[in-house]
Specification:
InterPro entries: AAA+_ATPase, ABC_SmlMolc_Importer, ABC_transporter-like_ATP-bd, ABC_transporter-like_CS, ABC_transpr_FbpC, Mo/tungstate-bd_C_term_dom, P-loop_NTPase. This is ABC-type quaternary amine transporter. The chain folds into two domains: 166 residues, P-loop containing nucleotide triphosphate hydrolases (Rossmann fold, 3-Layer(aba) Sandwich); 105 residues, OB fold (Dihydrolipoamide Acetyltransferase, E2P) (Beta Barrel), CATH 2.40.50.140. The protein is 21% helix and 35% strand. It has eight helices and 22 strands. Strands 6-7-8-3-9-10 form a six-stranded mixed β-sheet, sandwiched between helices. Strands 16-20-17-18-19 form a five-stranded antiparallel β-sheet, with no helix packed on it. Strand 7, helix 5 and strand 8 form a beta-alpha-beta unit. The longest helix is centred in the middle third of the chain and has 17 residues.
């Protein structure tokens, strides 16, 4: 018995037919297992929404195919219409029917509206069983999004697409609702794909995360593996928030704006070009004799983030809130002991 809910195979897409134009989606391959929530993560304009539209059936793919529950639903030659795919959609702006009550919104997509067993179950799961007679304008933002999720799952849907579902919610409601989403899906034996541009959101609740840039998937992995083994410079920068520093080979070592970088014996004959290092692994001290200059400061509760200009680079440095410097102060930077960084190409992890 196959365990894949959704399979995307060699998917390409562009909106015009010109040979010379760039692909909006290029060689997309991914699988979502039954019961799995996959996060589709990337910056604005990377192709996330286009991929969502192709899965939903709003566009013909230029190349490749999409299968759902062992049934091909999209290819260049044929496409199953959206209403026949049994895919639920949850939008960032809820898209609820304002003239229908909570109960009527959830029932809307059911063929047999007399059988309310699944509707009652879903309303209970999302915590709206006491609000069945209310209209959308009488609900809070979190309640509206819970209603949108219940409506998407009500027709017996076992796969849903979520397009930035928490972006319009305030922080407290967002944190609460996103922690509930995996349990809601598991309670309905449903799988899902959630589009987001927020790494914290994807990493906190998704079983796996696909990281996209410029129409390509750079890496699909579990959140822990993405943190421990980012395959590309973009993944380490976008997911971990790391500084990317150019390296220049100098004999058996490499020079950087943070000084000399040593590497393992087996890497000495490798052509390393960049280092990726976390802001928390760089120390900062005031020093009138150095050329590094503080250009900005952010207070983030338990620590400070400084942006420092050094030898043509702008680095982010995380430090204790008691290590106070001002914009314009000269400082010195160094790599902390008992830390690590990644070297590219190759994604080599080097410990200090």
């Amino acid at each position: 018995m196959k365990n894949d809910a959704l399979i995307i195979d060699d998917l390409h897409h562009k909106y015009d037919k010109q040979e010379c134009s760039n692909w909006i989606l290029n060689e997309i391959n991914l699988k979502i297992e039954n019961g799995e929530l996959l996060g589709l993560l990337g910056p604005s304009g990377c192709g996330k929404t286009t991929l969502l539209r192709l899965i939903a059936g709003f566009e013909y793919p230029s190349k490749g195919r999409i299968s759902l529950n062992d049934k091909e639903i999209s290819s260049r030659k044929k496409i199953l219409s959206p209403e026949k795919r049994n895919i639920g959609m949850v939008f960032q702006d809820y898209a609820l029917f304002p003239h229908l009550t909570v109960l009527e919104n959830v029932i809307f997509g059911l063929k047999n509206k007399k059988d309310r067993s699944r509707v009652d179950y879903l309303l209970n799961v999302v915590g709206l069983d006491s609000f069945v007679g209310r209209y959308p304008h009488e609900l809070s933002g979190g309640q509206k999004q819970r209603l949108a999720i219940a409506r998407a799952l009500a027709p017996g849907t076992n796969f849903i697409l979520l397009d930035e579902p928490f972006c319009s919610l305030d922080m407290h409601v967002k944190l609460k609702l996103r922690s509930e989403l995996p349990n809601i899906l598991k309670g309905c034996n449903a799988s899902g794909l959630m589009v987001t541009h927020d790494p914290e959101e994807a990493m906190s609740i998704c079983d796996k995360v696909a990281v996209m840039k410029d129409g390509k998937i750079h890496q699909i992995d579990t959140p822990i593996n993405l943190l421990n083994n980012p395959k590309t410079i973009f993944v380490s920068s976008f997911i971990l928030g790391n500084n990317i520093i150019n390296l220049k080979k100098n004999g058996n070592s490499y020079s950087s704006c943070l000084g000399e970088i040593n590497c393992s014996e087996y890497l000495k004959n490798t052509n390393i070009k960049n280092m990726s290092i976390s802001p928390k692994f760089i120390s900062i001290k005031r020093s009138e004799s150095d050329d590094a200059i503080v250009i900005s400061k952010e207070f983030l509760g338990e620590y400070l983030i400084y942006k420092v200009f050094i030898n043509g680079n702008i680095l982010r440095v995380r430090t204790d809130i008691n290590n106070l410097l001002n914009n314009g102060d000269k400082c010195t930077l160094s790599i902390n002991k008992n830390s690590f960084y990644f070297l590219y190409p190759g994604a080599y992890k080097e410990y200090i």
